[in-house]
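Researcher: Please predict.
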Amino acid sequence: MSDDTKPDTSPIQSRIEDGVETFEATIQGERIQWDDGLTYSRHLQTDRLLNSQAPVSDKPDEMLFIIMHQTMELWIKLMLHEVRVAIDALRVDDLDRAGKTLDRIATIMRHMIHSWEVLATLTPHDFLTFRGYLRKASGFQSQQYRELEFLLGLKRADLILVHNGNDAAIAALTDTLGAPSLYDEVLRVLSRKGAAIPEEKLTRDWSQPYQPCDAVERAWHDIYAAPDQNWALYALGEKVTALEYYFQEWRFKHMKTVARVIGHKHGTGGSSGVSYLVKALDLQFFPELWSMRTRMSAPKEGGDYSGGDRL
């Protein structure tokens, strides 16, 4: 029998499916298929992703530092995407969709909180082997983190200055600075649902820092004092509060990780390091949702316990 007439004994079978060459093989008892179209690597751009680590030293622990911060940036990118999804839902009063998205953001934050534990395995000696190579590169320069703060409601225009020379970053941050934040959109929802939100909170200059006020605190207090009558807004308030709760926990773990690795040295970008991160713990996105809790009081209930006989 000539070579041209031998049966095909290749373990891989191929065919054309939807105009694309498709392959099939039995591997470990499973029938596996793939094609020349969209592959795992092409979809996830793994070649670019896995080749994006560029250490500036020959120190082995720098790889941990790079990958840790790259994964943080990826999670922040997802959070930016999800916050915008939530904002779009709030603008059309789709509180169910907004709530689901806020829950996802809180879950992302919980994951990011635990990820600091990986960086905390970097000892002071480990970090100092390559810290000098970093020069003035610093997380203070993270465009995405600053954009996330702006989007959640912490507007601080002067922080854009560190991106001097990066026109694209400045444009993106300026756009986000001048747009309503998540909290601004939440207050607009409350107003449309009948809460007494002052007009100046609904049409203000979005680029300016939000200033808390008693009227907004009272509006939240009224919602929380009667949750059964205001369940949708009450649930929205709790989901937004959870987001800040986890964000602050992330900030705290960041601060403690930095303290563990470098003590109270200045940051590579010139900040006061741990002291700066401690100050950040006092920053708030949704101030009246927190101050309102102090305002709440429990109704006087129960019997007369003065006699000591509770039966």
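Model: The chain has two domains: 12-46, 58-265+274-295.
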